[in-house]
Amino acid sequence: MRKLIALSLLVVLAVAACTPSSSGTPSPSGGGAKQTTLRLPEAAKIVNTMDPGISSGGAGLEQIQNMFEALAYVDQVTGEIKPGQAEKWTISPDGLTYTFNLRSGLKWSDGQALKASDFEYAWKRATDPATKSRYAQTLWPVKGAEAFGTGKGTADAMSVKASDDRTLVVTLERPAPFFMHLAATWTAYPVRKDTIDKNGDKWTLTKDTFISNGHYRLVEWKPEQSMTVEKNPNYWGENNGPDTIVWTLYDDVATKSVLAYEAGEVDRAVLVGADITRAKADGTLSKELKKFERQGSQWIILDTTNAPLNNVKVRQALSLATDAKRLNEVVLKDAYFNSVSIVAPGVPGQKKENALGYDVAKAKQLLSEAGYPDGKNWPANVKFTFASGAAESKAIAEAVQGIWKSTLGIDIVLEPMEDKAFDNWRTTRKDQPFNMYVSGWGSDYEDPNNWYNLLFHSKADFFYAHWKNSEFDNLIDQGLKENDVAKRKATYESADKIINTEAPYITVYHWARFDLIKPYVEGLNHYRVLGRIQGYLVRVKK
Amino acid sequence: MTTYVLRRLLWVLPSLFVVFTLTFILVHATPGSPWDESDKPLPAAVKENLARQYHLDDPLPKQYVDYLVNVLHGDLGPSYRSVERSVSEIIGATLPVSAQLGLASMLFAIIVGVPLGALAAVKHNTWIDYVSSLITVTGLATPPFVRVSLLIVFFSIGLGWLPTGGWEGIFDSRAIIPILAIGLGPAAILARYTRSSLLEVHGQDFIRTARAKGLTETAVVVRHAMKNALIPVVTVAGVTLANVITGAFFVERIYSVPGIGRQFVDSVSGRDYPLLLGIVLVFALLISLVNLLVDLSYGFLDPRIRYR
After folding, report:
1. Contact at 8 Å (CB) between A344 and A444?
2. Which of the two residues, B76 and A11, has the higher pLDDT score?
3. How far is B307 from chain A (nearest CA, A)?
4. Are A135 and A186 in contact (CB under 8 A)?
5. What is the C-alpha to C-alpha distance for residues A260 and A517, in angstroms, rounded to an integer?
6. Largest Cα–Cα separation, chain B
7. In chain A, whose CA is at the least distance from the CA of B262?
8. Sorting pLDDT into bands at 50, 70 and 90, what band is B268?
9. pLDDT bucket at B196, cuts 50 / 70 / 90
10. How far apart, in whole angstroms, are the C-alpha atoms of residue A305 and residue A432?
11. Which of B:145-164 have CB within 8 Å of A?
12. pLDDT tens digits for range A14-55
């Protein structure tokens, strides 16, 4: 018997010893000059593709942005469009043809020359439905792209063409004053044909195959564990950022990054919920706490075709009675910015004067005019649907249930759903009735097209509010094509007035970001749009 | 004996088929799509294209047959959420990590649990027994994800001795917290079983005979009592082993260990059907094999058991 126990223990030991174990952390090479490393947290689950042509722009975007550069880029402080791989570009008077002139001597991270044809390849590849891009629609304004992307056209018919090694000519389907923003998006980053042809989907996995053209290049990616990048010596411009950036990947990035931050393992932590409150009260952490603006809105979305919310007065009453200041500051512990209007501040066309605001007396009067004085006759089963895993949506639903009950005397029913079931429910709202749910949107680029046309146009109806207003549609159709900046803004402002008055959405708050940042890290900033950390702007003084 | 093993092995195949079919039906009956929309919803045209490219718009019976044929050819398919790695590659990369962690935790459980239980039985109703009970009840009453969180708070934040997460192989300091967190539960179970089983054996005739022969108490316990007391313990250890290798889901998640349990949790919440099916098949196979090993080990421990 003793032998048997000893034997089984030995077997277990042997198996444990024989299984391979990787060793050594991906530590940046120290050498001569003082090497600096920036250690950042990232969400593991969503870093599931580093392919710029496929990425939907969730987590993973920060790494992609640090390693690639498009023809132009958005300045992460001022928001201006600046020349990137292209030194200049010209736009034809009709706004349809863009001619980009690439810088001379551009190189890929492996030293090979980067040509205009690399852009042509990348744009057509991202649009090709077989690429399975999660963000393909970005390039659809290019002539022939939407047809190609939806399987009705061909790559050859997509109007992006390298006329020589340093010139890229792009023709659009119709004028799109926001096109430079799209040309600066990750979907429009160049990618290298030879490595993709040779390695297929796996080209992003190793440093030898993941060839990029930005400030940094890949050293090592361990899926679900970490990613390390180093300065790209072949980048055309200067890079005074840290020599190495290491991202540690966590499943629950908010909780885990705070632990790792307090243990000194990372230089930045992502804060949400109770940790914000805790950090504010902590002597040390409160000094390292920073709140950043994020251009986004969180709404209660109303089905405008389903009674009783098909009545504009009811929607206005609910909106006027929603104490958004209290929601953010008390219920959500000031984790966001107080509601201003439906579209987030800073988007051209958004005007805070257009918002309905908070006015309980007026809300009661409107509700009474709509036939529900003090909540009398209010139907019994008006439902507020939310994903049970989203703690915040739940808090919002419970809070507004109480607020509307006490101010307007109406009852709503809470309907929680499992997260993916909720996604599914939301998708099927396209042609099915509902009452209300919580969702939000953040700018991909700071242009009214990214909000009014993409989300609110009756043909788009992105959140299925089923709201139709022909005057609104006409205004934003005009705005979309208008090349005159001032006129364009005024047109969208008129549309903004209509949507705020009609109240298909009730704004709960505008997005924000809370970080803990170690005192020796300078220049770490989140620009209000997308807001990923750009390593070259950061200085690590340690 | 050989016939018995072969017959048992043959039975694994229909079990796997049933597991596969049930899982397939269940995952497709659950609402939701694999595309990540936690941050922002995807445009409808993009979702339609993705569904078409991954054949998710095919009728379900066709998807079932296609997938089954691929599995029989050893192809577990693409993962919807990981563009770069196929299901086989993900399982190939993560299963060894979980297996190392599981075996190490099991080893820890045996080394701690069995002697602790034996000691408690021998020193029955003394303070040693009570302390051992306290330890085992605590081990049984706290789920692994609570233990791992407490260990992180204590060792990483409080004392600063160990990292807050990560994985650099089984011989790295990063392995200590997950091994403790996973191993404490099985250790408590083994200690309880060893104790009660040993107490029961202690009252039997052959133990009296052994004592009457004039053997020392140590010899009686180790050579005679333990051998017979271990049968239920081995049964429990076997079941626990399968659990420990495959079931460290939340410890892996919380401690950022790149194991298969973490993939399992993600594939369920992310509706990554091929990954989920692949992992379930691997788990079913593992559990079948461990059960067979447990059954076989009875014969070595108790000569009265015969295989037919």
Report:
1. no
2. B76
3. 20
4. yes
5. 12
6. 85
7. A251
8. confident
9. confident
10. 10
11. 152, 156-157, 160, 163-164
12. 444 443 333 333 444 444 568 999 999 998 765 568 999 988
Beta strands A226-231 and A436-442: pairing type?
A: unpaired
Q: State both tokens at A357.
A: 């605001």
Say if A252 is an interface residue toward chain B (CB within 8 Å): yes
What single-letter amino acid sits at A88? K
A275 neighbourhood in chain B, CB within 8 Å: none
In a 3-state reduction of DSSP, which class is residue B118?
helix
CA separation for the pair B51, B43 (Å, rounded)? 13
Contact A262 B37 (CB under 8 A): no
Whether residue A195 has pLDDT greater than 70: yes
Angle between helices B226-246 and B260-269 (to 10 degrees): 50
Confidence tier at A164 by pLDDT (50, 70, 90): very high
Of A358, A279, A288, nearest in space to A317 by CA: A358
Mean pLDDT of chain B: 84
| Token pair of B39 as six digits | 């941050």
What letter does residue B155 receive in the DSSP assignment?
A: I
Under the banding of pLDDT at 50, 70 and 90, the label for residue A151 is confident
Looking at the complex, report in whole angstroms how far the Cα of residue A515 sits from the nearest Cα belonging to chain B: 18
ipTM: 0.78
Smallest Cα–Cα separation from A479: which of A294, A295, A347? A347
- Distance (Å, whole) CA A147 – CA A135: 15
3-state secondary structure A328-382: HHHHCCCCCEECCCCCCCCCCCCCHHHCCCCCHHHHHHHHHHCCCHHHCCCCCCC
Which token pair is A381? 């089963």
